[in-house]
Design a protein that fits this description.
Blueprint: E1 40-42, E2 45-47, H1 65-95, H2 108-111, H3 115-136, H4 146-154, H5 160-184, H6 201-224, H7 233-251, H8 258-268, H9 277-298, H10 313-321
Helix pairs in contact: 1-3, 1-5, 3-7, 4-5, 4-9, 5-8, 6-7, 6-9
């Protein structure tokens, strides 16, 4: 048999090829947030990991954060008050379109009693407040009312500097919204608040105070006091104004808000002799609501009727018995 051919000798094995790696970024530490990730350097060039782009105004970077927050809240309160009162006043204009009197007032007893008009105005104010509070409460708190601002300052929910800025924004927004309504619609500007013929000054102050106290206390319990339904607070706040308007529109015009009465007076150029009650009444109502709120806080109302925020009967019973909740494993 012929010998098998010799196998040619092979050289040393070639080194293994290194796998080609795609350029990646260094893993940031777990403590870094997306906004705190530093720029990564590669080949002498700075590379920024892809992130969501957020528009920032260059000239605001030098501003102190507190000053900038005050500015944003003030702008939001001005726009929010303007939107709230614009839709409320516009609806009132429509409701009073058939009025034949020249009083330029929305007080139902002066324009001729009509349950339909009364309901229409109440719905406009209540729903406009509900919608705009829901929109703007993350920006400025969605107060839109100097009486509410006073109450929040008295309970130290906001400081007096913020309260002053919001007050100015609310008055400016009321004037601006009144001006828009007066020039935009062809109907007569009938949104001022006045006392009805049979309503005395004392009665007007008390009516405005009690209705405002109801509104402010609703805001305290639904929005200021945090609970599982806090995100739904605008609905209850809007309904509180709706109920108050059902009572107040006939006798006082249903102001509950000094800015709401001040704006139309400035635009129409007419301040009635009883205009002061629309400042004193709501302010007194805010004081009443604050006093009652502080009393129930001192008495620890949370333990008087526990378990109301629970979603099951078992959890409510445990809260009522004072036993701790079972932790889900």
């Amino acid at each position: 048999m012929a010998p098998e051919p010799a196998t040619p000798a092979r050289g040393p094995p070639s080194p293994p090829r290194r796998p080609r790696r795609r350029p990646t970024y260094d893993d940031p530490s777990e403590d870094e947030s997306e906004d705190e990730k530093p720029k990564r350097k590669r080949n002498g060039r700075e590379r920024t990991p892809p992130a969501e782009e957020i528009l920032r105004l260059p000239f605001t970077m030098w501003m102190n954060s507190s000053l900038k927050n005050h500015f944003v809240a003030t702008v939001g309160e001005f726009v929010g008050t303007t939107m709230f009162l614009f839709f409320a006043f516009a609806g009132t204009q429509v409701a009073n379109a058939g009025t034949t009197t020249a009083t330029q007032t929305t007080t139902n007893a002066s324009t001729g009693f009509s349950p339909i008009v009364l309901m229409y105005i109440s719905v406009c104010f209540g729903f406009s407040l509900m919608v705009n509070v829901w929109i703007f409460y993350r920006i400025s708190g969605g107060l839109f009312n100097p009486a509410v601002t006073l109450a929040m300052a008295m309970t130290r929910t906001i400081n007096y500097a913020r309260a002053t800025l919001l007050l100015v924004a609310q008055l400016a927004g009321a004037i601006f919204s009144s001006y828009i309504v007066s020039v935009l619609f062809p109907t007569e500007f009938n949104v001022r608040t006045t006392l009805s013929e049979k309503t005395s000054l004392v009665q007007g102050v008390v009516i405005e105070a009690l209705l405002t106290a109801e509104l402010v206390f609703a805001i305290f319990m639904l929005a200021k006091e945090k609970h599982k339904a806090t995100f739904m607070a605008p609905i209850g706040i809007g309904l509180a104004l709706f109920v108050a308007e059902l009572v107040g529109v006939y006798y006082t015009g249903g102001s509950l808000n000094p800015a709401r009465s001040f704006g139309p007076c400035v635009v129409s150029g007419k301040f009635d002799s009883e205009h002061w009650i629309y400042w004193v009444g709501p302010a007194a109502g805010a004081v009443i609501a604050v006093a009652f709120y502080k009393v129930i806080k001192i008495l620890e109302y949370e333990v008087a009727n526990p378990g109301q925020d629970e979603t099951s009967e078992e959890a409510a019973a445990e809260a009522a018995a004072g036993t701790p909740k079972k932790e889900d494993v």
